[in-house]
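Anyone opening a protein record will find just a pair of labelled lines. A complete record is shown below as an example.
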Amino acid sequence: MFNENVFPGQPIYNNGTVTPNQQTAPTIDMPFEQSYIENILRMNKGKKVNVHMTFPDSEQFKDREFSGIVEQSGRDHIILSDPSTGKWFLLLMIYVDFITFDEKINYNL
């Protein structure tokens, strides 16, 4: 039963009982370690990885592979360091195709 007069964030009342709608439903605290790329990379900080990326709008390089040590990761980025060259890379997750590891990864969620 759809009520056109109910706005987001406004509770729905059924026979005196409050039914939360999308915006009023209680939030549930999720554990920090969830199966997201950023969290998997955080659990594997310090390991060598190969990040395979595609840049569809680039004429210079469409597909690239970046190798280095996982230093940090966030919701939208990965920071790698390459000890052999001294370079650091800030890579945007939006361009990541896949990531390979040279050793067993930590994944205990």
User: Anything to note?
Assistant: The chain has a mean pLDDT of 82. The longest helix spans residues 37-43. The longest strand covers residues 63-73. Helices lie at 37-43.
